[in-house]
Design brief:
Elements lengths: L5 E6 L7 E7 L2 E8 L2 E6 L13 E2 L4 E3 L6 E3 L15 E2 L1 E4 L2 E5 L1
Antiparallel strand pairs: 1-10, 2-3, 3-4, 4-8, 5-6, 6-7, 9-10
């Protein structure tokens, strides 16, 4: 048994389009981003030195940039866009009864 399940992350109304929010879901740092009405949920910590990605920025090209050293990730896949083969954990999510749930 894997123990994976859906867990509450944030009220849907608290994540406006074009914004991101850092939350802890069952102790896991999760970054929620709503872009073009789609919610993306990924690890909230950079693979490089563990900086909080919620303090970074994301662009129209779906690129999330870490505030500490400029590492860039594709928010759709979690893939690091530099030379290293790094990927942020990406979590499945859904909206149910006005709540954003994340599958962990």
């Amino acid at each position: 048994m894997s123990g994976q399940s859906w867990f509450f992350a944030l009220k849907d109304s608290d994540l406006k389009d074009g914004n991101m929010k850092f939350v802890r879901v069952k102790g896991n740092p999760v970054l929620l981003i709503r872009k073009n009405k789609v919610i993306y949920s990924l690890s909230g910590k950079c693979k490089h030195m563990g900086c909080r990605l919620s303090k970074g920025t994301f662009s129209d090209e779906f690129i999330l940039k870490c505030p500490c050293h400029g590492w860039e990730y594709d928010i759709r896949s979690g893939k690091y866009l530099g030379e290293k083969d790094e990927v942020l954990e990406v979590y499945e999510n859904k909206v149910e009864d006005g709540e954003i749930l994340v599958y962990l």
